[in-house]
């Protein structure tokens, strides 16, 4: 799997990326090889550089985890890296709606 292509396939469905933090992990020691940050108000050049650092192949099947991180969107939704027994994926998350019983009572 190519990390850049995987990310682009997912975020194309959800535009308005706000910022991101991704750690690329060592295949042998579980330590962080690269920390990739895309700050709020990033420039087109920063976006290109962020994607260039993600342009690598990795095994997203069972084994060791290769990527972890969080990607935030303008509307408050986010992508979180999921992992189980070495298999990994981007998982889309939305902020749950606040139930009415927690909201102030109308007067």
Describe this protein's structure.
There is one protein chain. With 107 residues, this protein is α+β, with helices and mostly antiparallel strands. The protein has one domain. It contains two helices and five strands. The protein has helices at 3-11, 44-53; strands at residues 17-25, 32-38, 67-73, 78-84, 87-93. It has a five-stranded antiparallel β-sheet, covered by helices on one side. A hairpin with a 6-residue loop joins strand 1 (17-25) and strand 2. The longest helix is centred in the middle third of the chain and has 10 residues, at 44-53. It is globular.
Topology overview:
Layout: H1 3-11, E1 17-25, E2 32-38, H2 44-53, E3 67-73, E4 78-84, E5 87-93
Antiparallel strand pairs: 1-2, 1-3, 3-4, 4-5
Describe, in short, the structure shown.
The protein has 107 residues and is α+β, with helices and mostly antiparallel strands.
The end-to-end span amounts to 56 Å
Order of helices and strands: HEEHEEE
Largest sheet: 5 strands, antiparallel
Number of helices: 2
Number of domains: 1
Main attributes of the structure:
107 residues, alpha+beta, five-stranded antiparallel sheet, 35% strand, globular
């Amino acid at each position: 799997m190519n990390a850049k292509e995987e990310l682009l396939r997912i975020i194309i469905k959800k535009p308005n990326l706000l910022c991101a933090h991704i750690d690329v992990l060592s295949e042998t020691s579980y330590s962080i090889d690269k920390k990739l940050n895309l700050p709020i108000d990033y420039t087109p050049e920063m976006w290109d550089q962020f994607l260039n650092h993600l342009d690598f192949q990795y095994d997203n099947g069972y084994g060791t985890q290769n990527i972890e991180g969080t990607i935030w969107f303008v509307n408050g939704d986010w992508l979180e890296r999921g992992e189980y027994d070495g298999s990994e994926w981007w998982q889309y998350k939305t902020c749950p709606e606040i139930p009415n019983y927690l909201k102030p009572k109308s007067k």
